Prior knowledge:
By secondary structure, the protein is of the alpha/beta class. The chain folds into 3 domains: 3-129, P-loop containing nucleotide triphosphate hydrolases (Rossmann fold, 3-Layer(aba) Sandwich), CATH 3.40.50.300; 134-194, Helicase, Ruva Protein, domain 3 (Orthogonal Bundle); 197-321, Zinc Finger, Delta Prime, domain 3. The protein contains 15 helices and 5 strands. The chain has helices spanning 3-11, 26-37, 54-62, 83-95, 134-147, 154-163, 168-174, 187-193, 196-210, 216-224, 229-253, 258-262, 268-278, 283-300, 307-321, and strands spanning 18-23, 43-48, 71-77, 100-105, 125-129. A 5-stranded parallel sheet has the order 2-3-4-1-5, with helices on both faces. It is globular, with a radius of gyration of 24 Å.
Amino acid sequence: MYKNEFDNHIRNKTVSNSFVFFGESAFLIDMYTKMLSTVEDANILTFYHDEYDFNSAKAHLSQGSLFGDRNILVIKSQKKIPKKELDILLALAHKNPDNLFIYAYYGSDHKSYNNTKSFKKTDTMSVRFFHPKEYEAQNILLQIAQEKSVKIDKYTLSHLLKIHNGDVALAANEIEKFQVFDREITTKDVDVLVYGLGEVNLDDFIKKLLEKKDFKEDLKTILEHGEDEIRILTAITSYLTQLYMFNIYIRVNGAPNALEILGYPAPKFVVEQKASLAIKIKPQTYYRLHELLLENELKMKSAHIDKNAILFSTLIKLQKLL
């Protein structure tokens, strides 16, 4: 089923006690997993990615709580659980309606869990979450804002989403920043408080820099928005470090894996973009680039230095090394 149908079950209190969540939106998978597993006095066992152990998971769902509370099993993984093991865990949840089982699958093999016949022996609810559309993302953010007692309208939330290129997860993380205000949040507040605008521009700027394109106007705009020269250098260093990690992983394994490289699932287009950039730079070049950036960062931290001049000079040298 899809999100809308599942929401109706939640509203009507007709949800099961076993769930398989999958799809394109890791944010929604996380959100619904947290929503359903937040049960007072529950005995919860959570496995993250490679921590999964079938015998421990089976034992947790098999036993009843000594104090009459619910046993909750949550498995979060980008790897598929073997079908026989998943069937056993779902069957155990089916036998004991007091317990609850959530399998949050972050991988890309959606066909395996998009077939309702796979779960016909139990009451398992298999839900596919797509990236929320703009109006859905606005409603999600509005709900989060209300929960945190933040006064903000949909127009301002739309502005916040645009700053983060429609990434509802990044936008949701910003809501807490607005809790200090005892008034309605405006778009100006968003521009001032949310560093996302700088992050997005800086990210685009770094990509342009590494593609050896003219960066002067972009750099001028970034500096006019209040970015610090040292911060720009450290951001480039951090970006290159991440690309180097992609480069090494691809050389060893043949293809990128965001979860293992970054520690979290990333959108497919982001992974492909970084992988494409990463393999264009030779390992020895990464060393020289890092050396250049770190040396000039140190220079900038010295007293009475023209940081702007050093930054500009460093970026020109960086492009020559590529």
